[in-house]
Design goal:
The protein has 351 residues and is of the alpha+beta class. The chain has 12 helices and 11 strands. The strands form 3 sheets. It has a 5-stranded antiparallel sheet with strand order 6-5-4-3-7, covered by helices on one side. Helix 1 crosses helix 3, helix 4 runs antiparallel to helix 5 and helix 5 packs antiparallel against helix 6.
């Protein structure tokens, strides 16, 4: 989205102030980072000085602001700083697309640490952010434009015109969407919006990575119904997916004793229940919406995880094993079975 001039200047001044707080900068470097010309840089420097910031110049004609001459840029406690750092790094690691906003926020955090609670650590965080910024391309990506548009619509309660292609669909469709909530999914490594679709007149989930072009933020606003309860909706969701029309499905898995400790140390779902049997195996039960979404997670445990119920999921895993056996040229009887093919499991996973 194109920012209006006042907003662009405000954000530009904010970034200029932060760069000057983070260390000594040449004028050429500042123009390059901010993508502005010499005249604009001069005007912005004057604006900062009028706002009370003392801009100094060293022997190499590099500009800087001494943190001691101004208030702390971002007021966070030590624990808040560490938590924000971990959250940002986790977001950057699971999201394989460049995120200028995440880079700038990381830089802000580094400046805060450097000027306040951790002066020895801050420069390393600043250097990390600057290295990430250098790796960014000049143009915003389609995904960046998409998340910026979605963010604007969500924060301002404005409707979105989107073109969306579901995972199993051959063609995308157009709809007007009311974004009620933005939610990340660590399991699927994606970002989702939960809201109301005018096309189907129901609550729906849309994955940002499946939006096929930059959404249009409409002038028309919407109101979130008082009955909207995101906690209730997500209570039975695996990751982010949920179905408001169907009751959750009880899923029961049996994990081998070798991996039971690993399964127990993580809370995989809000409704999960874990019980050990006499042999040290772990019985895991949860109420799940959209069970298909958890199949990759189940398959990831290999022969250390057996599906006990529902039978449809058990059958789907057995069919998948048979396809794997065929793919790798392993012998397997194609006749249906009420239980897992132990010979096949041994061949595939060495169990």
């Amino acid at each position: 989205m194109t920012l209006d001039k006042a907003t662009a200047k405000s954000e530009g001044l904010d970034r200029l102030k932060r760069y000057l707080l983070s260390g000594h900068q040449t004028r050429d470097k500042l123009k390059e980072i901010l993508v502005i010309d010499r005249t604009t840089l001069w005007r912005w420097l004057k604006s900062l000085e009028k706002a009370g910031y003392v801009i100094s110049e060293d022997a190499q004609q590099r500009l800087y602001i001494d943190p001691a001459t101004c208030p702390t840029y971002l007021k966070l406690s030590q624990n808040e700083s560490v938590l924000l750092m971990l959250a940002l790094r986790l977001f950057q690691q699971y999201n394989d697309k460049p995120q200028r906003t995440a880079v700038e926020l990381l830089h802000k955090l580094g400046v805060q640490l450097q000027a306040g609670v951790a002066p020895a650590v801050g420069p390393h965080v600043v250097a990390m952010a600057e290295a990430q910024r250098a790796a960014l391309t000049g143009e915003h990506t389609d995904y960046e434009r998409t998340i910026e548009a979605v963010s604007t619509a969500w924060l301002q309660s404005r409707k979105l015109q989107i073109r969306y292609r579901p995972r199993h669909a051959h063609r995308p469709f157009d709809e007007v969407f009311h974004p009620y909530m933005i939610e990340p999914s660590a399991i699927g490594r994606g970002t989702y919006i939960i809201g109301y679709s005018e096309l189907v007149d129901r609550l729906r989930v849309r994955k940002l990575e499946r939006i096929k072009r930059t959404p249009m933020v409409l002038d028309e606003t919407f109101s979130i119904p008082e009955t909207f309860d995101v906690q209730r909706l997500l209570a039975g969701a695996w990751g982010i997916w949920f179905d408001v029309d169907e009751r959750p499905t009880t899923v029961t898995l049996r994990f081998a004793a070798d991996v039971a400790d690993r399964v127990e140390e993580t809370r995989w779902h809000p409704s999960e229940r874990k019980v050990r049997d006499a042999d040290g195996r772990l019985m895991w039960t949860a109420e799940i919406d959209a069970v298909d979404e958890m199949l990759p997670w189940i398959r990831g445990w290999g022969a250390d995880c057996e599906v006990l119920e529902p039978q449809a999921v058990r059958d789907a895993l057995i069919a998948n094993l048979r396809r794997q056996a065929h793919l790798y040229g392993l012998h397997t009887d194609s006749a249906p079975s009420d239980g897992p093919d132990l010979h096949l499991l041994n061949e595939l996973f060495g169990a």
